[in-house]
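Components:
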Amino acid sequence: MTIACKINKQMFDQFRNKFPLDDDKWTDYTNCFNRMEVPAKTILIQEGDIPKKAFLIEKGCVRAWFNNAGKDVTFQFFFENNTVASIESFRKKHPSTVTVETIEPSVLWFIRKEDIDRIIAEISEIPALRDKFTDAIFERTFVYMKHHFSFIKDTPQQRYLNLIKEMPQIIQRVPQHYIASYLGISTVHLSRIKSQLARGKS
Amino acid sequence: MTIACKINKQMFDQFRNKFPLDDDKWTDYTNCFNRMEVPAKTILIQEGDIPKKAFLIEKGCVRAWFNNAGKDVTFQFFFENNTVASIESFRKKHPSTVTVETIEPSVLWFIRKEDIDRIIAEISEIPALRDKFTDAIFERTFVYMKHHFSFIKDTPQQRYLNLIKEMPQIIQRVPQHYIASYLGISTVHLSRIKSQLARGKS
DNA sequence: TGCATTTGATAACAAATGTTATCGTCTCAC
DNA sequence: GTGAGACGATAACATTTGTTATCAAATGCA
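Structure:
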């Protein structure tokens, strides 16, 4: 099921100029990534396990979800070039509170936690890269802040409109009941919102 | 209205052992903080302005809120020993998207952005302190993640119960309509939740 | 002290949202 | 192919939540 190899790293070329590293280090780091192709509904991280890997998506899409009173609640979606990790588990060494699962057949690059830790430790000594890392964490924080904002102030319809504005592809690629739980509403209500919008526009 | 001074830094002693710094640096850093006493409803950061200061609360409480279609929506509460800053504005040099305002008469210590930037740059060269800083950002991220979780999966009543569990003091110290908007519900509904809980328990 | 304002509870009604059930379409494994 | 299950729309009804209005108590300020 999993086909891993260490060749064909041209996928990473698009990121090359973003990291001021010499070629040796670059090769070292990109060599930590292993390619894998998996079908839809493959579980990458299991809720309750301590995750040992993070993933970069070359092709496909992925969701993070958790079980709430028997129902599955989707927490986040990931698409091409997103990195997927249970950052809270990585940081706190707790079991993951979410399951991470492919939605489509996907091409992923995985990297082991030991390697991530080493790379972070190394780049933290280089101010420019350390700042990049800090920026990345802040960006993630701001995304969640924005979600918090949105849940406090917006109606479900507005949240839906925001979502299709920010991730238009989501409509085509993600089953609607995942989107509904991500928005915190029932599938029936999402369906109603869609038909309202369709009627309103015609 | 603002009484600032540079003496009486014993307030900071409680944090002394958390920071592996020599005494000179410690004095340098704590000297960047200025004490101020302000009445309730003092605006510390104005929505739309580029904030120049951050605050540490010695005594009192503070809320961050923003204007949404004419209504004020409370985003976050702060109590003793919390630090208050518009981190997104600091990081991105954007105008603040929230107003920060005292709820009670408060004793605060403020620090200027230039000083923060210098201190962060300096401690980033010391691995132990750099890690503390990174941890702090992650912690903030996890708090917002938890909020996001909660809005997706919990009812308003559950969110209210969570809140009084995590910040019991909030009930005594914060007007209920601020709490309602923080929970994303109307004041009437919060009132109903409270009376339901009271009836259920008796 | 006394008055204006803020705060909070409650009722009545309106609107939003959830639940359950049904149906048609689509997809995918065999 | 084909049959089971996944998916999405819709209806009918139940429940939750919001809105507006009213009142009483608490609070702050002149």
